[in-house]
Every structure is written in structure tokens, then in C-alpha cells.
Amino acid sequence: MMKSLTTKAVSAAAGLIAVFGGVAAAPAVAQGVTAPPLVIYGSQKCPTDADGNEIVVCVRRPPGEQFRIPKELRELKVTPENESWAAKSAANDRVGQDGIGSCTNVGAGGASGCFVQAGRAYKKQKQENKAEQRAVDAAIVP
């Protein structure tokens, strides 16, 4: 009984290989997949075949961008993971401050610093919202 099951499984697998093994892979164009444009920098030429018959879509970028991370992959939002050490040390300089402009309940004028911090946070949030809206508008309108 066990031998007949394995024989049937092997013959079924061989049949599938025979059916699908003879099918050649279709080119990317026939599959509906478009190739991404080729990125060239500075005065580089867009490649073609020897006769110049092949059409290749190229995107030209400035030569200074050649060895940088592409704009599409750059993280624009500053998070604690990618914040600079200078900004982190500047934040440590403000620890324990009190008095005017410090947003603390100790010292004269401490509340004025809270207002300034809230204003800066509001301005930053508005700028981020505008940037996100521009990105959405750019994605919608071709």
C-alpha cells in the first residue's frame, strides 16, 4: 500500500514537470512588467545596442548625486535613531535649566518657555502636514 502511494506521488510529480517544464519563460514585456528607467549621472550616455536601434529610457541626475543614497530612499523625517550627535548633546545641555525661558514651575518667568516650546512644536507640525499634503498632491496629479 505504501509503495503504491509513493509511486503515484512520483508519477504525478513527473507529470507536472513534463507539463510545466516545457513552457519557456516569457520575456518581461510579454508578462506586462515594465523595466525601471536607467539612472545616469552627469554627461554619461544612455546605452543602446551596436546599431542604435534599441530604445532605453534613462533618467539623468546631477553628477554630485552619483555616490549618494537615491532621493527615493532617503529618510527625510528626523527620528531618534537618525538624529545627529550634535542635536543630542544640545538637548543634554538644557537638562536641569530653570528660570526664564525654561518651561518649569521653578523660577521667575518659567512659563514663558512652555509657550515657546508649544509654539515651536505647533510650527513644526504644520510644516510636516504641509509637506505630507504636497507629497499626496504630487502623487495624485500626474
Give a summary of the structure in a few sentences:
Helices cover 42% and strands 6% of the residues.
Task: Explain what the structure shows.
- The chain has 3 helices and 2 strands.
- With 142 residues, the protein is mainly alpha-helical.
- The longest helix is centred in the C-terminal third of the chain and has 31 residues.
Topology record:
Elements: H1 2-21, E1 38-41, E2 58-61, H2 85-93, H3 110-140
Portion of residues within helices:
40-55%
- Overall mean pLDDT stands at 74
Oligomer: single chain
> Could you name the ranges where pLDDT drops below 50 across 5 or more consecutive residues?
1-7, 13-24
Which properties best describe this structure?
single chain; mainly alpha; two-stranded parallel sheet; 3 helices; 42% helix
